[in-house]
Amino acid sequence: MIKRIRGIFKGRNKTSGYKDLVFTVATAKENSLSFKKQMKQTLKTLDLNLKEMQSSKKNILSAQVYISDMTNKQKMDKIWCKWIGKNKDKWPQRACLGVALEGNIKIEITLIAVKKI
């Protein structure tokens, strides 16, 4: 059975789960903020989304980071690495792409994780 949790955006759910897999997406709630603040809000939302599906950032398998301005990639890397933890052997696979995002959204992140066992 697929579990879906509604978000605020039309045409998509914020989180879906199937068996032991969790799929989630987040952007900052306040798109008038700086890149760093949007990044931190986005990660906080992802923490909440994962928890809601009985998972955590320690269980992330794959991440896709979409940035509206790739000159912010170094800032993103610094914040991401602090959030994901110091143990490099436990880091997930990650891709980072420069894309056009709607309005003043500077970052969007999608994750695939497993539920806590």
Beta-strand proportion = 25-35%
CATH superfamily: RutC-like
What portion of residues is helical? 25-40%
Order of helices and strands: EEEHEHEE
Task: State the low-pLDDT regions, or none.
Answer: none
Beta strand count: 6
Name the assembly state: single chain
Neighbour order of strands in the largest sheet: 1-2-3-6-4-5
So, CATH architecture? 2-Layer Sandwich
Identify the CATH class: Alpha Beta
Rg from C-alpha positions?
A: 14 Å
The major sheet is characterized as:
6 strands, mixed
Task: Outline the secondary-structure elements.
Elements: E1 2-6, E2 13-18, E3 21-27, H1 35-52, E4 60-67, H2 73-84, E5 93-98, E6 107-114
Helix pairs in contact: 1-2
